[in-house]
Amino acid sequence: MLRELYTARLERKQCLSEAAQCFHLEFVVEGEEEFSFTPGQFISVVSNDARGKPDTRAYSIASAPRDNRFDLCLNRVESGYFSNLLCDLAAGAAIQIEGPLGFFTLREPLTDSILVATGTGVAPLRGFLQRLFPIGGPDRSGGKEIWLVYGTRNESEIYYREEFETIAAHYANFHYVTTLSRAPESWPGLRGYVQDHVAQIVGDRAARLGQPLPAPRPDPAIPPAQLRFDIYAYICGLSEMIGAVRERLAGFGWHRKQIVTERYD
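RESULT FIELD:
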């Protein structure tokens, strides 16, 4: 099925990490007053590959909707045609895109939520947070407890750190948790893997609310499409990390529909 193509022109580029060659890119969609999407969705970049054959590559949108603009966040991959194409763009250059696409979006009604990411998996979660906690705009979280558990190897790869710290300073119900798997001795923060800190959050929350763990199974009489939970996890990153977090949550009795994932490999 043919999808509508848009022309997106690069307005601004910022290197978030020289070591990881991670770039933040801001685009404006030409000829459109609005580019509508739901935070968490992705666009597909359309181009002829190195062999001259048409190809596409999906990238999560790293922002909430704002007029006809959207952001991307990606690492340069040494042999990656599309990542090098995008990372080498100069301001004013244009690309062709399809979209928006995808179902990695916040479930309604909004509940307490644990957002989990490693590396550039934080991109769609940034869109969630911009939607829920717009600095200078209306709080759309409804007072729900929202955690961002963000893991990476090195401190230089904590992307959008100042932005998330600003949100945490403004909203008491947003909890920003960073952990390094290769932390130097000088690192004052948390260490280890995201699944361990997610488990701590789940255990502490259940104790505070007086909820049993493992959680009781949902009533089998409720059709799967109608299941509703008081907390969800949204996980974005590589398959190995997603599997590790999913396994820990399953051990707490979480239902598979409580765990919403988007993998990058």
